Amino acid sequence: MSAAAMSRAPVPASTSSPSWRPPCGCGRAFGTGLWPPAADRRRRATGRRFLLGQQKGFAMTETAGGSGYATVDGLKIYYELHGGAPTGGRTPMVLLPGGLMAIDTALVEDLIPRFARSRPVVAIEPQGHGHTGDRGGPVTIDRMVEDTAGVLAHLGVGQADFVGHSLGGLIAIGLAIHHPARVRSVTTLGAFTMLEGMLPELVKLQRDPSHQPSAELIPLLPTEADFAAWQENFRRHAPDPTAWEAVVVKLNAMLAEWQGWTAAELRGIRARFLVAIGDNDFTRVEHAAEMARLIPGAQLAVLPGTTHMNIITRGAWLEPMIDARLAHDAG
């Protein structure tokens, strides 16, 4: 995004190049609703009661409570376990946050405690997010897909239900395509299967750095406070707290170069699938409907009064939809 379009988002003090911008695809399109750093304090008081302590039977590098790292192709990938052992007989749910987000800023206020009441939950921070560091070279969706599969292998999880927001939804779709045996179901929140699945102006923002967001688009975008909190979370948790700008640039390049998935790949998905978007999301309703049409048996949910930023707070609506779908297919 151009310097003009960046006017509502903080530029790191270390940045001197005008070419740096938070990506439409990661900061603008992949970003999620956010909770302030005080969420850490609330989490210790409430969310941690859902955490799983270190369990006998699977390897885990213990940090705080039920958190750990899985080393996949040389990168230590951070995860948290909530609601019981992921290999205890119940199918776990894997939660994947949106781009530039982390467990603290996207999942801990609603989705983790809600889902962990009734099933094991595995929350994963992908490459360059939260506690998980970056690799040399570019970031790709395919690499994040393989990393996620590697975390599940590390934990001994054979199959899981996936809920992914934005970038996390793209990772979940990739898993359904490339690792079908590991995926029982997928619920995507504000995801898409190609760049053109987003609102036309967001596509333009991604491709034209000189474009300034319209008055209609600005209310849907992450705020300056959102970006500041994302960066602060990164500074507190990332292995290299100074790498924020580099990660943002990589994620922006990733989306710009991403080719999406073909209709044939989507038709080949066999997982139970729920396409969920807000009625004021970054994803076009027409594109979401096409996703649901192409993926065999997929269902579409358009949530009223919901944006790309607050869809992760709609767990009270999403949970019964997911449970009803799983129960229907099981019957």
From TrEMBL:
Q: Which residues form the AB hydrolase-1 domain?
A: 94-311
The UniProt annotation puts the region (Disordered) at 1-22
* InterPro entries in alphabetical order: AB_hydrolase (IPR050471), AB_hydrolase_1 (IPR000073), AB_hydrolase_fold (IPR029058)
At the top level, the lineage of the source is Bacteria
Which keywords label this protein?
Hydrolase
Q: Name one GO molecular function term.
A: hydrolase activity
Write the protein's name: Alpha/beta hydrolase
Lineage, uppermost ranks:
Bacteria, Pseudomonadati, Pseudomonadota, Alphaproteobacteria, Hyphomicrobiales
